[in-house]
Design a protein that fits this description.
The complex is a heterodimer of chains A (119) and B (107). Chain A has 119 residues and is mostly beta strands. Chain A contains no helices and 11 strands. Chain B is built from no helices and 10 strands. The chains are: A mainly beta (119), B mainly beta (107).
């Protein structure tokens, strides 16, 4: 079955960096765009970034542009989110999700990993 | 960026009630509008995609409608497991923005 498993979350000081990973299994990873979506404690969902199936294009929310970098290693079925210059407002659960092009929607989600930015 | 506005922000209803949640976009989406359900502490779950198509395994009491800028999620007869938070999301253009969410609570 389709599975997405995030890792790499934790507590980090403002201004520091953190790298999240998302391990995919149960489907042909190279056929799908993958997105990151985050959710601050007690708040709604915020779309963060997307990378195309072949890594050819990436797009970011304005709130993270220039600080976050999404990448993928199709040989390892793994997605990454490099987060630099972290701010308190980046504190959230980060989800990776598979985008089903024909449905134009996020049909499978990981369980999320919590990032806390605090001194 | 396309702004998505859901209403209401919260809703109290009883088992068996019919409820509707609306989502309005700041510009036309054609039908690139999706609905997700999120239970506390869980990842979101896709309910409806392309405005009105039910995701596999989702009960038929859920339905979606709309086109352009105005969309509706309807639950025909509320069940206990339906009390959750619902989000719309546009997939017309990046950034794929979400609505602010509608929390559905038991009356």
């Amino acid at each position: 079955q389709v599975q997405l498993v995030e890792s790499g979350g934790g507590v980090v000081q403002p201004g520091r960096s953190l790298r999240l990973s998302c391990a995919a299994s149960g489907f042909t990873f190279t056929n799908y765009d993958i997105h990151w979506v985050r959710q601050a404690p007690g708040k709604g969902l915020e779309w963060v970034a997307v990378i195309r199936y072949d890594g050819s294009n990436t797009y970011y929310a304005e709130s993270v542009k220039g600080r976050f970098t999404i990448s993928r290693d199709n040989s390892k079925n793994t997605l990454h989110l490099q987060m630099n210059s972290l701010r308190a407002e980046d504190t959230a659960v980060y989800y990776c999700a598979r985008f089903l092009t024909g449905y134009s929607s996020l049909d499978s989600w990981g369980q999320g990993t919590l990032v806390t930015v605090s001194s | 960026d396309i702004q998505m506005t859901q209403s209401p922000s919260s809703l109290s209803a009883s088992i068996g009630d019919r409820v509707s949640i609306t989502c309005r976009a700041g510009q036309t989406l054609r039908t690139y509008l999706n609905w997700y359900q999120q239970q506390p502490g869980k990842a979101p779950k896709l309910l409806i995609y392309i405005a009105s198509t039910l995701q596999s395994g989702v009960p038929s009491r859920f339905s979606g409608s709309g086109n352009g800028t105005d969309f509706t999620l309807t639950i025909s007869s509320l069940q206990p497991e339906d009390f959750a938070t619902y989000y719309c999301q546009q997939s017309y253009s990046t950034p794929y923005t979400f609505g602010q969410g509608t929390k559905l609570e038991i009356k």
